[in-house]
Amino acid sequence: MTEPLLRIDDPADPRIAGFLSIKERDLTGRQGRFIAEGTVVLRMLAAAHREGRGIAAEAILLLESRVAGVAELLAQFPPDVPVYVAASRVFDAIAGFNMHRGVLALGRRDAAPGRDALIAGLPQSSLVLAACGISNHDNMGSLFRNAAAFGVDAVLMDSTSCDPMYRKAIRVSVGSVLTLPFAREGTAAELIERLQTAGFVVWGLSPRGTADINAIPPAPRTALLVGTEGEGLPETILSQIRTARIRQRPGLDSLNVAMAAGIALHQVASINGRI
Amino acid sequence: MTEPLLRIDDPADPRIAGFLSIKERDLTGRQGRFIAEGTVVLRMLAAAHREGRGIAAEAILLLESRVAGVAELLAQFPPDVPVYVAASRVFDAIAGFNMHRGVLALGRRDAAPGRDALIAGLPQSSLVLAACGISNHDNMGSLFRNAAAFGVDAVLMDSTSCDPMYRKAIRVSVGSVLTLPFAREGTAAELIERLQTAGFVVWGLSPRGTADINAIPPAPRTALLVGTEGEGLPETILSQIRTARIRQRPGLDSLNVAMAAGIALHQVASINGRI
């Protein structure tokens, strides 16, 4: 059972300070705190909290008109997670913009295993999504959503990629950011070296790749590497690894990075019997 | 060669009335007019204009700081298309929001062939993307981008789908909306009937589909049908056609509709030798 609902009438109430102006603060550091938004993401947050994977829910903030509809969802959180409720005017003043969804949670991601520890802990049969230079939170969220759908064991990013724990990336990932192990550190070159040392066959996805994506052979440990939205993977990286391309009609912009990763992950997961 | 640049100093100048408040007007009818935004889309607009496929450029509006960088692009438009230039403050006052891209065109789509005429004119070997109930402009744009990448001959939508000629859909499609034949009319049931009568094998994409997407056989005429973002295709539709699913890990939200269509189109285009 959940605790009684706690009514908030003043946007400056210190109990909901963590939700203040989340739109602006979305692009600043928050000491491991993050904002989960919408019922789909809150469901994933509740699951991650229960499973104790370093993700914890700290507070929930609801628009009063949403309370009745989310009773079953609230019951999935431990009773010591406070549930605050606000009327529309107060809710919008807290969040800093018109939050139509009206369902927010403040969460915390505790220090997670770093890249090398994560690689060391992967099962013998593994599929990794590696990404470098991803700067768009929509694409980041979409990469995680696809990674979860196709059974990826970990998402590993270089340090120039954006933080998947931002509100919009979490939302677009439909909460997969909260459940998929990930690390974001170091350079793409280091990441490739660590993966190869751990026995991964690393495939770089590029319109200039040599193999057709449909011709990638099965392997116990495969890592798929995708690059920045605009330029893709640089030649210095592509020359060190096997490369694959997704055939498409000529003369058009290459596919969106998340779309390309989705097609490739579906293919690699299929041939390795992971889906 | 292009005409001299025409300087605009007053946002109320009648010559640029077509660009006024494009953000608000984006969701209202405009008698076949549309806004193209960014250099990638303008390049597609210039190509469509030259090829005389019922798409015409009427005017271009540039932020003055962008002029030098787009000289080569301007040269691709006929000289009778006026090019207006405005300083940042005036430009934003015209467009109604902060247009960082600073590269806009007003275009016109003339009466295009309807659904039945479009189907009647398709080549013997054809791939069609059919969509019903698509309400999100991002998804619509992404569907067109994928359709173009994988050699789709026409995109056919039911009348409940949103208009692909909206600014955001055109932008997300990287201009494919301007070059791919499409029609948006009638019901999904009518569309299926017309396609089947024309010899198309219609495959509905659904998490509850019976065939694996990788097992769809080649066919001279294939249509892939996708449904609304939330509910997918209704059972009344699915029961009339062959259905395919994209395997994924259980217990997660189904894939985004554009992502699912991208994976399926890549597969169908591959087995039919279209890419």
Question: Any overview of this molecule?
Answer:
Two copies of one chain form a homodimer. Chain A is an alpha/beta fold and 275 residues long. Chain A has two domains: 6-109, Ribosomal protein L30/S12 (60s Ribosomal Protein L30, Chain: A); 115-271, SPOUT methyltransferase, trefoil knot domain (Alpha/beta knot), CATH 3.40.1280. The first copy, chain A, has ten helices and twelve strands. Chain A has helices at 22-25, 39-51, 71-74, 88-95, 115-120, 137-149, 167-172, 188-197, 235-238, 257-271, and strands spanning 6-8, 33-37, 55-63, 83-86, 103-109, 126-131, 154-157, 182-184, 201-205, 211-212, 221-226, 242-245. In chain A, strands 8-7-6-11-9-12-10 form a seven-stranded parallel β-sheet, sandwiched between helices. Chain A has a five-stranded mixed β-sheet with strand order 1-4-3-5-2. In chain A, strand 6 (126-131), helix 6 (137-149) and strand 7 (154-157) form a beta-alpha-beta unit. The two termini of chain A are 36 Å apart. Chains A and B meet through helix 6 and helix 10 of A and helix 6 and helix 10 of B. Chains A, B: Residues 127-266 form the tRNA/rRNA methyltransferase SpoU type domain. Chains A, B: InterPro entries: Alpha/beta_knot_MTases, Ribosomal_eL30-like_sf, rRNA_Methyltransferase, SpoU_MeTrfase, tRNA_m1G_MTases_N. Chains A, B: Keywords: Methyltransferase, Transferase. Chains A, B: GO terms for molecular function: RNA binding; RNA methyltransferase activity.
